[in-house]
Amino acid sequence: MRKRKYYINQILSLLIFICIFTYAILNAYGYKLDFRRMKVVSSSVLDMSTNIDHIDIDTRIYLDNKIVANKTPINLRNIPIEYYILELRKKGYYTWTKNIQFDDVRVTSYRDIYMLPLDYKNTLNLYAKDVDTFIVSEDTEKIAILKKDKKTVLINNTKTSEITKYTDTSTIDLIEWVDKSNLKVESKNDVYYYNIEKAYKYDEIFDIDNLITWWGSTKNEKKLVITNSNEIRNKKTNKLLARFMNNIEEAFYINKGNTVLYTTDKDITLCDIDIENCIKLNNKDPGTKINYIENGKILYFILDNNLYSLIL
Description:
This protein is mainly β. The chain contains three helices and 27 strands. The strands form seven sheets. Strands 1, 2, 5 and 8 form a four-stranded mixed beta sheet that branches. The radius of gyration is 28 Å and the shape is elongated. The model is unreliable at 207-220 (pLDDT under 50).
């Protein structure tokens, strides 16, 4: 009798081991046991993070309105292959929503999702009054501002807050940075360069190597291709990202290339990488350009002839 019990226990232990081992192998290859349907089904993986650098224990992840995680970044496994409404919710922030279908071929990944605070406009700051146009240097340390009189240029050092003033007797039509120290100025009667460190006017730039190097612009690499004036396409792949009824003036990748910032004639809008979850940030003056400083997360734009900064 004892011998019989011994063999039964050994067989049961072996069966339990086989079941556990089989379950572990299936789980490792993305399969799970659906107890409701009593069958083995394939599953998927969801990988998510936000633009918040640290581990965020206040962000909730929902699938079809059911909470599945309470922090980011997160890597969720064994998700059944179905259609879902995926949501990220965080108190005091806009909700991020996506309709998705998981599959068993690849990991569904959304990295550096931009979580925008509901009160982001509290950081809106009047930077300069009576502005015609402005341009930020490639090192993002200086902002050249052409005043409405089109004869005065203010150069603001964003690190030291030092302001340099330059005035031309002729009407200035265009200003642009050549390098971190020199501005190209096109006036009604002349084209010349102005060195802000020496406060000196040049007829030409002698440092040609520096000039060529400087035009290796990182900003152009971030800019999206815009065709037919109402489409946004990826610059590298030419993939159509979105088509609009309104004309698009500019579009940029920001947030490590995971967010899109675009402008129409009067509006500035922030969207996710798929041009979804779009939020209109602010109005702007028609025909004016914007500039976003990635390392400081500062957006510059002109509204009512005044230059504003907005921290995102």
